[in-house]
Amino acid sequence: MRGTWRGLALGSSIVAGGLMVAACSGGGKKPAAGAESTAAAPAPASAPSMLVYVSDERGNKVTVIDAATDRVVKTIDAGQRPRGVRLTPDGKTLVVAVSGSPIGGPGVDESKLPPPDRSKDGIALVDLATDSVRRIQGGHDPENFDITPDGKFIYVSNEDAGTATVLDLSDGKSVATVKVGAEPEGVKITPDGKEVWVTSEGKGTVTVIDAGSNKAIATITVGKRPRSVIFAPDGSKGYVPAEVGGNVSIVDVKTHKVLKTLDLTKTTPDAKPMGSAISPDGKFVYITTGRGATLEVIATANDSVVATIPDPKRPWGVAVTADGSRIYTANGPSNDIAVIDAATNKVVKTVPAGDSPWGVAISH
Question: Which domains does the chain have, with CATH numbers?
Fold first, then answer.
């Protein structure tokens, strides 16, 4: 979607390491006869910090937050209008969708916006060892994407073109372009890597692409203006939040049939379901509600809402730490990130995160 309702992430890894070397006895004197000269063994290097990467759509930066302290440690210039953000499976590269299309949104007369600058469209690849940025082409107005489990290919939603572009990460070249529904946004690959699901905001559908042939094989009708997709870890079910529909479609991945539609306006009347994430154990799905200003917690055992967490203004992007203990949401209008304790389902902190944070990715 062209509008900036949300916040979301790019960054580079900072590896804090230290080696403590013990001082030897001073003065240049030899040890007494029979005495042993000893030196303290080096202390082990400290483990790398877990980092949270937040894309700032209006700030044209990626804000990097140290999850141990929840403090901003740096920003990265990945390109113009960064939105979708993910880490490659090996954790070595941060991938960010950048765009030269102007920002529209609610109340904006898009006919009066300047023309898009296609030279700014692309996929930014940030080497987390060096912080160097390389950009490859990703089709018109790349908004979001996902990476195959083997890290070889990226599937990119091209909002203005109504297509999904398939990129080979080894050389950055496009290997296929797949026609999907109008205004595609959410992209998610099934855990087994066999299918790619792309949401169409304009059509209220999900296009299913066979990853082997790069052909569309199914179209699933879901709620109005679907924004993202998340899958159960076992690949059995997909969850598709729909902004205008105010609901989440729960889909059988094998049959491509909707099993249940969960109305989030029953718990949050102003819910505009947007981003989605799932706990590592697969027990809970987290859905941001945009202007509803909540994070809805769905228990996957019976696909019902079990908690509603008040969140700052218009949460959109959402990610969960590898241990499942914390959830981070990107809150565009308030220019911050909310840190949520998953055990208590409470916001424990907010962290300033640039200008209009959109997406979130967390290192493991």
Answer: 51-107+121-362 (2.130.10.10)
